[in-house]
Design a protein that fits this description.
It is a single chain. This protein is mainly alpha-helical. The protein has two domains: 299 residues, no CATH class; 160 residues, no CATH class. The chain has 19 helices and no strands. The N and C termini lie far apart (67 Å). This is Flp pilus assembly protein TadB. Keywords: Membrane, Transmembrane, Transmembrane helix.
Length: 494
């Protein structure tokens, strides 16, 4: 799917329509105020940097280009925060109501009294009416919950809905399982709120870094005046506009990264499945031969250079480069395996939760087979292998024992042993064992999602460092100009 260009939002109509999706009414009056603030900001920066009118106009134009994205991301951020709060409150109330009543309809009737206004109230009413009045449906409860699921697009809510539908059909006491799901929801909500606070801190630090950069870069214009005034030099003016423009770009890019849905699962576009296959199918002998072929040309070049110039530095550099080429297959394999290992740590608990919920109605092998449809990309190939092995040896422990064995993850191995115990009927009370599996998985998911949060925060810290690099480049330009002006004055003075 082709991404929409941010430039299309320069058109008032397009921006208005997009903002309306997030519940914000963008009126002409608000647009005039917003663009007026951009003009004011450009004028202030122009005065501070002693810019001439054309350069002030350039800053204004850059600001006008970025303004629609800033407004859109601000409204998106507010919308996603509201949707998270709504989803969290809905899950909490629905699980509590279902635990009390034991039926989907009664749980929805109780829940709708809590959410008594707004769009979500209308969605709940529509779902309730679908159960009460639709007569030509084979599964009105599931269809009704799908209406709510389509409103949120949240995997956790979909999983909860699947669980309660199965629990209602199965009958019996599901209170303990519901309590574990409620505990999982609480842990998830706490993690998200913690990540929201971390993102706010990162955003604040980025703003401080950007403001500090622009203030520091003003100093050379005011510390030395008179004959050493460089503010009117075209290169100084242009570099100031470039500095301010890049600072704006950094803010917009960082804001876009920080603006995310807290309930929708992010699409994995990293090709981690291919990385898994790369690690699984790694042939060291074959890859070593490939590395040796790659090292031939650098070896010839460095030997020739050393013979010509008789320079020891060339020899040392050549040895390092050739050794790198000879071992690049090992380095690449280790990096790929490390990435796959971390992704398995993050994604395995999500898959295990899906299996645990499927075990409410299916046996272990059927639950594993069904789970592959929604399994994370990093696990798909391993699960296909597991299913094939289970078909050949349905009663043995070997297929479970071999699952992702090469990654040596104790949590994975422990969970697979429990699944084998359930499949062989040696786990005692199945319901109790499934609840224990869910409880253990809650702890694994908490650990995995904290790892994912660490990755997100680490990825954002580069935006805090970029302004420092930018300030260094701008100051280098200004110092060079000061030196040129000083030497010119010195020459004329002589």
């Amino acid at each position: 799917m082709k991404k929409k260009s941010g430039l299309r939002y320069l058109r008032y109509r397009n921006l208005t329509q997009e903002l309306a999706k997030y519940g914000y009414e963008y009126t002409p009056k608000k647009a005039i105020v917003a663009y007026g603030m951009i003009v004011l900001l450009a004028a202030i920066l122009g005065l501070l940097y002693k810019l001439q009118l054309p350069y002030i106009a350039a800053i204004g134009m850059i600001g006008i280009v970025f303004l629609p994205m800033v407004i859109l991301q601000a409204m998106k951020g507010r919308y996603h925060t509201i949707m998270f709060s709504l989803a969290n409150n809905y899950m909490e109330q629905f699980l509590y109501s279902f635990k009390r009543s034991g039926t989907v309809l009664n749980a929805l009737l109780e829940t709708v009294t809590i959410f008594d206004e707004g769009i979500f109230h209308e969605v709940l009413v529509k779902a309730i009416e679908h159960i009460q009045y639709v007569t030509d449906s084979e599964d009105p409860e599931r269809e009704a919950l799908n209406i709510i699921g389509e409103f949120f697009h949240c995997e956790r809510i979909d999983a909860m809905h699947s669980f309660v539908i199965d629990a209602q059909r199965r009958g019996g006491d599901a209170n303990n399982s519901i309590s574990l799901l409620a505990k999982n929801r609480t842990m998830w909500a706490e993690r998200v709120m913690s990540l929201q606070k971390e993102f706010q801190i990162v955003k604040r630090n980025i703003m401080i870094a950007l403001v500090a950069t622009m203030l520091i870069c003003i100093l050379p214009l005011y510390l030395l005046g008179g004959d050493l005034d460089i503010s009117s030099i075209p290169l100084c003016q242009i570099s100031a506009v470039v500095l301010i423009g890049i600072c704006m770009l950094i803010y917009v890019k960082a804001d876009k990264k920080l603006c995310r849905s807290w309930i929708e699962k992010e699409v994995d576009s990293t090709g981690i499945g291919k990385k898994y296959l790369q690690v699984r199918d790694y042939d060291e002998v074959k890859e070593a031969k490939s590395s040796q072929k790659m090292a031939i040309i650098p070896t010839i070049l460095f030997i020739g250079a050393f013979v010509c110039f008789k320079n020891i530095a060339i020899l040392v550099t050549g040895v390092v480069v050739v050794l790198f080429f000879l071992n690049q297959h090992k380095i690449g394999h280790k990096l790929a395996k490390k990435k796959v290992t971390r992704e398995i740590e993050k994604q395995f608990p999500n898959w295990l939760m899906e299996v645990a919920l499927l075990l409410q109605t299916d046996n272990v092998q059927m639950a594993i087979r069904k789970s592959i449809e929604s399994a994370p990309e990093v696990l798909v190939y391993a699960l296909e292998e597991l299913i094939d092995q289970l078909e050949e040896n349905p009663n043995g422990i070997e297929p479970y024992h071999r699952f992702l064995k090469e990654y040596r993850n104790p949590d994975v191995q422990s969970a697979m042993k429990m699944l084998f115990a359930l499949s062989s009927g040696n786990a005692g009370d199945v319901t109790k064992q499934v609840e224990e599996l869910i409880d253990r998985n809650n702890a694994m998911m908490d650990k995995a999602e904290k790892l994912e949060q660490e990755d997100k925060i680490a990825g954002m810290k580069v935006y805090i460092l970029l302004p420092s690099l930018l300030a260094s480049l701008k100051l280098m330009v200004d110092m060079a100009l000061l030196l040129v002006v000083f030497l010119q004055n010195l020459t004329f003075g002589m």
